[in-house]
Amino acid sequence: MKFSLRSNKEPFFDMKLTRTCKVCANTFSGRYCNVCGEKVTEPEERSILNFLDHLLNAFTFLDGKFIKSLKLLLTKPGQLSWNIAEGIRVPYMKMISLFFVANFFYFLFPVYDTYNSTLKTQMNDLGAHSRRATEIVDEHLKNHTMTIQEFQERYQDKSTNLSKMLIVLLVLMLSVILMVVHYQGKKYFYDHLLFALEFYSFQLLVNLVVLANIFYWVIQGAAYFGIDWQFLFSGNIFSILSTITICYFLFRGQINFYGSKWYWSAFKTPLLIFLMFSTIHYYRIALFYITMWLI
After folding, report:
1. What CA dihedral angle connects 170, 175, 176 and 182, to 10 degrees?
2. 208 CB-side CA count, 13 A
3. Are 248 and 266 in contact (CB under 8 A)?
4. What is the pLDDT of residues 203-251, one digit of tens each?
5. Over the stretch 273-284, which tens digit does the pLDDT of each residue have?
6. Which residues of 64-79 are buried (b: 16+ CB within 10 A; e: fewer)?
7. Which of 54, 147, 245, 276 has its Cβ near the most Cβ atoms within 10 Å?
8. How far apart are CA 13 and CA 8, in angstroms?
């Protein structure tokens, strides 16, 4: 359903008036250039009412397709990808659009930055990479004459934003993993990519937006009464619950999307989780080099 704030009365428009297209300089009559298709801008299109009308329709569109897509995402993991792959697309958001909406909410409510890593982690906790990272940072400090504390602030600001933008790298890596684990399914890489996008849309919306914000407000509420519940984030509770939801999605998703038997899905789910968590290590290494390049 399409709503409008504007009057149903059509404003007068002279269809016979000859106009010159501002894009290609073609002479034409009517609302649209017959060469390049550019539309004539009418005065009412520049009104605040017109802007609000477009804004309302944008949210109306999001409500319809987004909610239908979200319902499948939560109740039947993998079904949304299967529908889209099979050509059932009109009722749902495009998968890439759903992913970017999920990423937008992740930007909007940055409670738990699970994919980022501090400069200290990069320099100390990532094995052989940490030695090379330390050398790169030391050289950077020497060339730019700044303290490690100053550089840490610059690095953290840049990497925090990049870590959210570069989640698409994790999507691509998961797609490759799915292609290998389900090679016998004879699906195209595009199909595996759809499922990977659906998974990370679920991960961002459910775990890193909804669950993380529930934990955050529970902690804030407890703090109001003088109770320290920071252990919910600092301990393993959040990680355990996140892993449970991931298991749920991958187990059900493989059944719905790949047509796996439940026992094969149960067998492959921990394998996928292990491989997926391994990709995060390489993602963080890539994040370091990209951040250093852009600082």
Report:
1. 140
2. 22
3. no
4. 999 999 999 888 888 888 888 888 887 777 665 788 889 999 999 999 9
5. 999 989 988 888
6. ebbeebbebbeebbbb
7. 276
8. 15
Q: What is the pTM of this model?
A: 0.76
Handedness of CA 238, 241, 244, 249 (dihedral sign): negative
Report the 3 state secondary structure along the chain: CCCCCCCCCCCCCCCCCEEECCCCCCEEECCECCCCCCECCCHHHHCHHHHHHHHHHHHHHHHHHHHHHHHHHHHCCCHHHHHHHCCCCCCCCCHHHHHHHHHHHHHHCCCCCCCCCCHHHHHHCCCHHHHHHHHHHHHHHHHHCCCHHHHHHHHHHHHHHHHHHCHHHHHHHHHHHHHHHCHHHCCCHHHHHHHHHHHHHHHHHHHHHHHHHHHHHHHHHHHHCCCCCCHHHHCCHHHHHHHHHHHHHHHHHHHHHHCCCHHHHHHHHHHHHHHHHHHHHHHHHHHHHHHHHHC
Alpha-carbon distance of 60 to 62, in angstroms, equals 5
Q: Please, which residues have CB within 8 angstroms of residue 26's CB and are 6 or more apart in sequence?
A: 20, 33, 34, 35, 36
Nearest to 110 by CA among 4, 204, 244: 204
Token pair for 48: 């605040």
Q: Which of 72, 106, 80, 81 is nearest to 203 (CA)?
A: 106
Q: Are 209 and 106 in contact (CB under 8 A)?
A: yes
Identify whether the C-beta of residue 117 lies closer than 8 Å to the C-beta of residue 287. yes
Residues 196, 84 contacting (CB under 8 angstroms):
no
